[in-house]
Design goal:
Elements: H1 2-59, H2 63-81, H3 84-92, H4 102-178
Length: 179
């Protein structure tokens, strides 16, 4: 009976363990595809957000430029009045940072959109490559797993029949010895 159990282990358990390992690796590949799909979706959302920002900037007239011009006119008016406190303020205060102009914002938004589109194209290429590999490998893998499982189950059936036949022979021998 021990030889039958060892035979079952060799012919059934080992191929089934290999099948389970290959199923785990297939699940990992599916997880990788899911991660690549998520990265692609995030990249597309980033492109959409940057495109919306650029569209919004293109639709807005140069509001920043107008404000800078208006502020400069106010400063020139104050200088003409000769306000000493204002003069002292400007002398002892650090220079103000130059605000971005509308044109600069547009150029920056266009660069950001181009970078996001490039990242989205790279994510799509990676996703498509992964899906292409899976489309080629998955049918082959399924065929191999089906053949391996059929072989393992056939070996199990044959080994089970052999073990059952040996058990019947032993019982027959015991029956003849008792009777």
């Amino acid at each position: 009976a021990s030889a039958g159990a060892d035979g079952l282990t060799a012919t059934v358990a080992t191929p089934l363990a290999a099948c389970v390992r290959s199923v785990r690796s297939a699940r990992a590949a599916m997880g990788d595809r899911g991660m690549a799909g998520g990265a692609l979706a995030a990249a597309r959302n980033d492109v959409d957000a940057r495109r919306a920002r650029l569209t919004r900037l293109r639709g807005t007239p140069g509001t920043r430029e107008d404000k800078v011009r208006e502020t400069g006119e106010r400063e020139r008016e104050r200088e003409r009045t000769g306000c000493l406190s204002l003069l002292l303020f400007f002398v002892f205060s650090p220079p103000l940072p130059h605000p971005q102009t509308h044109t600069t914002q547009l150029a920056e938004a266009e660069r950001d959109l181009l970078a996001a589109q490039t990242a989205a194209e790279e994510a799509k290429a990676e996703y498509d490559a992964l899906v292409g590999r899976m489309e080629a490998d998955l049918p082959r893998w399924e065929g191999e797993r089906a053949a391996a499982l059929a072989t393992a189950l056939g070996a199990y059936a044959a080994e089970s029949a052999a073990v059952a036949g040996e058990a019947a022979r032993v019982w027959r021998g015991l029956g003849g010895a008792v009777g």
